[in-house]
Write a structure and sequence with these properties.
383 residues, alpha+beta, 2 domains, nine-stranded antiparallel β-sheet, six-stranded mixed β-sheet, globular
């Protein structure tokens, strides 16, 4: 694995770095993690992707991570020497599409690996699509947990859906790009948020729209709980400033709650979230302190390390960290990234939602969570 951090975000500089990696004889494919602020033009990106002879996958994110720093501009390129195959899933927000129909041919073609955990699926989705959790659940049923999974949601903090995914088919939106990699990657997942309310039943939801809790409009319940706990009151222009500290947690058996991030108030006092919250599930309101989130980053790294046999002292660590943790921690995000990296060479993205299997647990789409994948090969110096 070879990693290049291109700090300018310039498209010509991307092409130069990509060409350098593509010309290496051992390169089988290249992952690209780009910042939204790079502001590349759709036509030139689309043309370049479709004309590439080297397999490409990746996305555009609010921020990226190189070492123990987060950046609002720049590009990370990762060249893999292992065999790599890529496929896409279209119509991620279309309720008429059966994801199983798109995934089954690949599941039939790719039998489970002989050695459990010897394959890794890197999964990038349009983070503003309405059926991400449905796709992740279908992947679980089609491909099982004999592979490792890591990835997250691409997209913009403007919350306007637009092309954000890279592959040789072009510059895509409302889709998913999946790379199957013949490499071992131990994963660890933790969030650090704590429950502050009783359990509430989701009595109405549609895709990523949470309509009612205990038969009451979801936003009305949400704002009252926050007011009672903190005294904070929503106005017309402060939703995200308050909501970044108060996610929901979906109850799961024998594991941490799965966090869901409210993005905005929706029609009829509903809440639009990053990912679905199924009707009939139970949720609690969460809150956290910087210290608990930073501790969770350490926990995620330690879990990932425990899932790697023959762990080198300095390995390649791939972090998928929620952008809302940056907004919550502010300057203390540096502490979280240092805790996440440990002694490892780290790269990654700040995402709109995170995808991983926690050890041998159920495959999930998370929010406000730190996911770390540690590859078993020894890290190489970054250019």
């Amino acid at each position: 694995m070879r990693v290049i951090f291109e700090e300018t975000g310039n498209f010509a500089a991307l092409i130069e770095a990509f060409t350098e990696l593509a010309n290496m004889p051992e390169t089988q494919g290249i992952m690209i993690l780009a910042c939204e602020a790079n502001d590349w033009q759709f036509d030139e990106v689309e043309h370049w992707l479709k004309s590439s002879a080297t397999p490409i996958f990746g996305g555009v994110f609010p921020q990226i991570v190189s070492g123990v720093k987060n950046y609002e501009k720049g590009t990370i390129l990762v060249a893999f020497k292992e065999k790599l195959e890529i496929f896409t899933v279209k119509g991620l927000g279309d309720t008429t599409i059966n994801f199983e129909d798109q995934l089954t041919p690949y599941a039939d073609q790719w039998q489970p690996p002989e050695k459990e955990g010897s394959e890794t699926f890197i999964v990038f989705v349009d983070g503003l699509s309405k059926r991400i959790a449905d796709l992740v659940e279908t992947m679980f049923y089609c491909f099982g947990l004999s592979r490792n999974y890591i990835g997250g949601g691409a997209g913009s903090l403007s919350f306007k859906q637009k092309p954000c995914l890279f592959c040789q088919q072009g510059f895509l939106q409302d889709a998913a790009v999946v790379a199957r990699l013949d490499a071992t990657c131990g994963t660890g997942v933790a969030h650090g948020w704590q429950t502050i309310s009783d359990s509430m039943k989701v009595t109405g939801s549609e895709g990523n729209k949470l309509k009612t809790l205990e038969w009451q409009p979801a936003f009305q319940v949400y704002q009252q709980l926050i007011k009672d706990f903190s005294g904070k009151i929503f106005t017309d222009d402060n939703f995200f400033e308050i909501a970044k500290s108060f996610p929901f947690g979906i109850t799961r058996l024998d594991t941490e709650v799965v966090v869901r991030d409210p993005l905005m108030k929706g029609p009829s006092d509903s809440l639009i979230c990053v990912g679905e919250i199924p009707a009939g599930s139970f949720v609690r309101l969460l809150n956290g302190r910087p210290e608990t989130l930073i501790e969770a980053a350490t926990k995620a790294r330690q879990l990932a390390e425990s899932n790697v046999a023959d762990l080198p002292e300095s390995a390649n660590a791939f972090i998928i960290d929620c952008i809302s943790r940056v907004l919550f921690l502010e300057d203390r995000i540096a502490e979280e990234l240092s805790a996440a990296a440990g002694s490892h060479r780290m790269f990654g993205a700040m995402t709109l939602g995170e995808i991983a299997n926690n050890g041998r647990d159920y495959l999930e789409f998370f929010n406000k969570t730190t996911v770390i994948g540690i590859f078993s090969d020894k890290s190489e110096p970054e250019r």
